[in-house]
Amino acid sequence: MNLEDEASAKVIALKYHALALDEIVEWAEKAIKALDNPDLNIISLSLVSDECVAMNHLKSVGINTNKNNVAKLFFGHFYNALDAGKVKYVEISKALYFLARDGYVPGEGLTRDMQYFKDALDLAEAGTYGDPENIKKEMLTFLKKYRAQ
């Protein structure tokens, strides 16, 4: 994966609280050390203390991205955040729905799978159909399977 895809995935992960601002700053610091000539936005990210400012710098870096690669990367962030209990499944299910609609899909034919979790979890949480815990396990398995390695 490239730096642009990583930056774009981090915008999404930060927006949905799957990454914290300090994790973005840490990533920027590592990128600065690894790059011969780091982008000014990466340097600025290492000093940022506001999420909105961080998102703007990340968006400036992640201009030319591959949506499939970006999806694989934010799948990893979502998986890690859910597994650690940092975010709610319902929020990530909504994110997957809208991101799939916008074309951020990790592979061919996975759009419907991404959109499934929002409705399935809503119905299960309402007691209409399904078990919420099973759907959460399915979502975690799905994210793990298609995340970037």
Let me know the number of strands: 0
Low-confidence stretches: none
Q: What is the percent of helical residues? A: 55-70%
Q: Please, how many helices?
A: 8
**How much is the radius of gyration in Å?**
16 Å
Number of domains: 2
| Head-to-tail CA distance between termini | 10 Å
Biggest beta sheet attributes: none
Q: Which percent band covers the strand fraction?
A: under 5%
Break the fold down into its secondary structure elements and pairings:
Elements: H1 3-15, H2 21-34, H3 40-45, H4 51-61, H5 67-83, H6 89-101, H7 111-125, H8 132-146
Please characterize this protein's 3D structure:
The protein is 70% helix and 0% strand. The chain is mainly α and 149 residues long. The chain folds into 2 domains: 3-61, no CATH class; 67-146. Helix 1 crosses helix 5 (67-83) and helix 5 crosses helix 8 (132-146). It is elongated and about 55 Å long. The model has no long low-confidence stretch (mean pLDDT 94).
Report a brief summary of the structure.
By secondary structure, the chain is mainly α. Helix content is 70%, strand content 0%.
Keyword list:
149 residues, mainly alpha
